Amino acid sequence: MTGRHRLRSILTLAYMNGFVPIRRQPLYLIGLIASPLSFLFFIFVASNGTLLLYGISGGMLLTVLSIGTSLQADLAHYRHDLKLQDVVVASPVEAWVYVGGLALSELVYSIPGMAVFAVLWATSGTATVVSALTLLAVLLVVWAFASALGFTIATYFSDVRETFAFAPLVSIILSVLPPVYYPISRIPSAIRPLALLSPTTYAADLLHGAVGIAPGPTLTGSLVDWAVLLGVTGALFVVASAKARWREP
């Protein structure tokens, strides 16, 4: 395939799996942002608004992480129910083009929900150009991380219904137990090292600094956060390319 054909394939998949569902059934968007907004509401009420920025940054992170769980379901559905992956395997389309197109479609699908949190953040008065660029960069890396994880896991499912049981577990491990919606100082020191095992802890630390939560990470802390986040994302891409089952065994 030429570069032009690859780009066309990616954009076609993004349109079919991203724009078309939104256009046909806008209510899907409510389901996407319902959980992050629910967390934001309870955090706002319980903290009397003092942890509002934690709720906003956590909502952004949870929305992007949901791309991975959505990608799991879509890939399993297309592979087992529609047999689309068998068609793609037999076509000139490479695996990374197929997965990239579906991952981009999930990103497109999440844009309206992200816009809600972006407006809330803008009204908080802490938004700047530099912080917005930092936030965008972090979320794009998390998108890549979630997509690689979702693709790898989905290839081992034999039925789309298995994703319904696994997706909540991934969500809890990556977005509820780590300090995404609250400062890491709230975790008891005895179990705080467990939070450092999750890559979303480092992504959340960067997001907390970007949205203006004081104190933000130091320069050394930011470098560590970026190193861990990029390292884990790169490792997941290696695992996805080496261990994921693109063809049926």
In total, how many beta strands?
A: 0
Mean pLDDT: 84
Count of runs of 4 or more consecutive helical residues: 10
Elements, N to C (H/E)? HHHHHHHHHH
How much helicity do the residues have? over 70%
User: Which of globular, elongated, flat, extended, rod-shaped describes the shape?
Assistant: globular
Percent strand:
under 5%
Structural class: mainly alpha
Work out the radius of gyration.
Answer: 18 Å
Give the N-terminus to C-terminus distance in angstroms.
25 Å
The total domain count is 1
Unreliably modeled segments: none
Topology readout:
Blueprint: H1 3-24, H2 27-47, H3 52-81, H4 84-89, H5 95-123, H6 129-154, H7 161-176, H8 192-195, H9 199-210, H10 219-243
Question: Could you name the key traits of this structure?
Answer:
249 residues, mainly alpha, 10 helices, globular
Structural commentary:
This protein is an all-alpha fold. It has one domain (3-243). Helix content is 77%, strand content 0%. It has helices spanning 3-24, 27-47, 52-81, 84-89, 95-123, 129-154, 161-176, 192-195, 199-210, 219-243. The chain is globular and about 55 Å long. The model has no long low-confidence stretch (mean pLDDT 84).
Explain briefly what this protein structure is.
This protein has 249 residues and is mainly alpha-helical.
